[in-house]
Amino acid sequence: MILLLLALLQAAPEIVVVAPPKATAQTPATIVVEPAAMFAAACDANGDALVTRAELSDCVARSFAGAESGSMRYLAYSDWALRWLGDRTALPAPFDADRDGDNVITVAELQAQFAKLFSRWDRDHDGELTRAELLTFKTRPIDANGPTTPARPGDKPGRKPR
């Protein structure tokens, strides 16, 4: 019996544990979209891939539908930002939208804030936002540690690259 057991142990294949290969570093994105611009893109009511000022204004009003009396305090605004912008701290911040400083954001105040953003995004000033206008292009790839490209000639050592 012992001989049989020894024979079986010797015939058993060797178990080799192999670690998964290291993940390849992902290329940092050079084209991004601001949360507010992502919201604006979703306001394309007629599906023509263009967003007008009227569509954006109407969309902001619809997003406020659950707010009592068409206004919300800062904590409620953070809930709104989480739902509609993807994060409680996404811009525009409540301080940017609350123009009269009364700690309450009204539909009109948020519409005015998005109207300012619309003007910034509408680079060709044609009154319509294209998807391309809503994108932000980073000129240098960055990761969590900062720029991933070498410093330019003339940059001082120890200084963050421009």
Describe this structure in words.
The strands form 4 sheets. Strands 1-6 form a two-stranded antiparallel ribbon. A hairpin with a 2-residue loop joins strand 7 and strand 8. The chain contains 7 helices and 8 strands. Helix 3 (53-63) runs antiparallel to helix 6 (107-121). Helix content is 39%, strand content 12%. The protein has 162 residues and is α+β, with helices and mostly antiparallel strands. The protein is elongated, with a radius of gyration of 27 Å.
Anisotropy-based shape = elongated
Structural class by secondary-structure content: alpha+beta
Question: Strand-and-helix sequence, N→C?
Answer: HEHEHEHHEHEHEEE
Give the terminus-to-terminus CA distance. Answer: 76 Å
Q: Report the oligomer.
A: single chain
In percent, how helical is the residue content?
A: 25-40%
Number of helices: 7
* Biggest sheet statistics: 2 strands, antiparallel
Give average pLDDT, whole number.
84
Strand content: 5-15%
Q: Care to count the β-strands? A: 8
Rounded to an integer in angstroms, the radius of gyration calculated over CA atoms is: 27 Å
Describe the strand arrangement of the main beta sheet, using strand numbers: 1-6
Poorly predicted spans:
none
